[in-house]
Amino acid sequence: MAITVTDRQPVARAEEILTPKALAFVEELHRRFAGTRNELLEARQAKRDGVARTSRLDFLPETQEIRDGDWKVAEAPAALQDRRVEMTGPATPAKMAINALNSGAKVWLADLEDASTPTWPNVIDSILNLRDAATGTLAYTSPDGKEYTLRTDAPLAVVVARPRGWHMPERHLLIDGEPAVGALVDFGLHFFHTAKQLLLNGHGPYYYLPKMESHLEARLWNDVFVFAQDFLGIPQGSVRATMLIETIPAAFEMDEFLYELRDHASGLNAGRWDYLFSIIKYFRDAGEEFVLPDRASVVMTAPFMRAYTELLVKTCHKRGAFAMGGMAAVIPNRRHPEVTEAAFAKVRADKTREANDGFDGSWVAHPDLVPTCREVFDAVLGERPNQLDKQRPEVSVTADQLIDIASADGQVTEGGLRLNLYVAVAYTAVWLSGNGAVAIHNLMEDAATAEISRSQVWQQIRNKSVLADTGNTVTRELVEKILGEETERLRTEFGDEAFRLYYQPASKLIAEICLSEDYTDFLTTPAYELVG
Asked: Which residue ranges form the domains of the chain, and what is each CATH number?
């Protein structure tokens, strides 16, 4: 076998996951599909180059027949008919996994992507926890003796696992000397160890698919699913996938995404934070009209965001697929009642808008917010498990509306620039420490919000944006100055040791990618080189 595990540090219980048969399955996935994946990544760059020349995106003329056709995705299995509340979070450590499963949510998005740093111990522990959850044996005892076990008095959340995006490698597994594809490692190990057990449980191998930019990438996932089901000898259609519409080119191919995965599709999700990151990435050099205001100013009621979410609901329900709402980043703080009250109010307003627009469910990032989201959707759904019958025929969205970035209210300010640099460094430091999700200023931040933050800084330098509150122009020199001040602030907040280990390298990385003439496609790619 030409697959090699490169990590030399022992990972607890790794031998239970890295069995010869499991590794052989991952190797076969890589050999069959890595070449196509590589070609599709190259196609991404070619398409972006075209947008750089034209500052335009449009619906694909070659797939007009699919958009006009009368077809539907396969009916959802019983376990996925009701998705009104979905809890999101990493699959490691075990305590967090147990809390998510016990949260009362209908679904747990078990995240191996944006909310997880892909250190080798994290990858292995995530698969172990998901395997043990499937067998009902997941448990944890804290150092002070507190026991965490799966509840038996109410249903557990249905697991929908999110593997890494197509772009990420897995350097701890080499195949013919080359890093394996991270997405295929995550999917392959999870599928191999859980698929049959999940079907016995009355569920199935269910997935969220992130960061796709073309329906051809969805087609590749469909090919992977077909092969994997045959390999394990389970019925075709056992796999169900919800695709995140979190890149701007994907917004123009919603029908096509569902069509490519129609026998395995469960729905689409409005991945709002990565979507904003993608808009900045795609139109970063298209001029001032594509410069977003401060991140905190861009709300879901902005016209271009309304166009995106309304088109998603209409497309999904026309095809019999679920429309899933996005993350409300605010989180409660049990030590500060006023923060908690404000968080509940913001989540309630956000989820009320989604439920009234026709979404079938939505995400929360904290167990305390599950009842609020459930209450809102209960009020709209009543006894129905979903609202697939809400077709939204009045919605008509044009290409111009999807990229009408100038319609967003707000300004570019020094306060926003400072916050972007603070969040980018703070999040990257925590990511380097091995934790992919962290509360910063009572917001749950993951890789998507850090990506927006550092991308806005790069774009503002490129466009010489003028700060509304100070009148200063955003230059490399100004960014270096403010970055230094925010980095020093983090040193005083977290201490010298954490600063030396994580915050200083994080600040250096953020400086490199924000000040570079060339844009870095993903923050996590160079950050991955700095972790174990």
From this structure: 3-7+33-330+339-399 (3.20.20.360), 412-528 (1.20.1220.12)
pLDDT higher for 344 or 35?
35
How many H-runs (helices) and E-runs (strands) does the chain carry?
20, 15
Residue 445's beta-bridge partner residues? 438
Angstrom distance (rounded) from CA 351 to CA 363: 9
Closest-CA residue to 427 (of 46, 32, 115, 42) = 115
pLDDT for 460:
97
Work out the burial of residue 465: count CB atoms within 10 Å of its CB; fewer than 13 is exposed, 13-18 middle, 19 or more buried.
buried
Instruction: Please enumerate in sequence order all residues whose Cβ is within 8 A of that of 504, keeping only pairs 6 or more positions apart, or say none.
Output: 487, 491
Strand partners, 3: 175
What's the rounded Cα separation, in Å, for the pair 14 and 5?
11
* Pair of tokens at residue 121: 């111990």
Catalytic residue among 111, 132, 350, 446: 446
Q: DSSP character for 499?
A: I
446 is catalytic: yes
How many CB atoms are closer than 10 A to CB 43?
14
pLDDT category, 442, cuts 50, 70, 90?
A: confident
Query: C-alpha angle with apex 514: 508 to 519, nearest 5 degrees?
Result: 125
Annotate 449-480 with three-state secondary structure.
HHHHHHHHHHHHHHHCCECCCCCCECCHHHHH
Q: 243: helix, coil or strand?
A: strand
Closest-CA residue to 112 (of 87, 142, 138, 92) = 92
Average pLDDT over residues 69-77: 97
pLDDT tens, residue by residue, 181-220 = 999 999 999 999 999 999 999 999 999 999 999 999 999 9
Of 131, 162, 284, 295, which residue is the catalytic one?
A: 162
Gap between the Cα atoms of 530 and 119, Å rounded: 10
**How many CA atoms lie less than 13 Å away from 344 in the CB half-sphere?**
15
* Amino acid (one-letter) located at 79: A
User: What per-residue confidence (pLDDT) applies to 1?
Assistant: 52
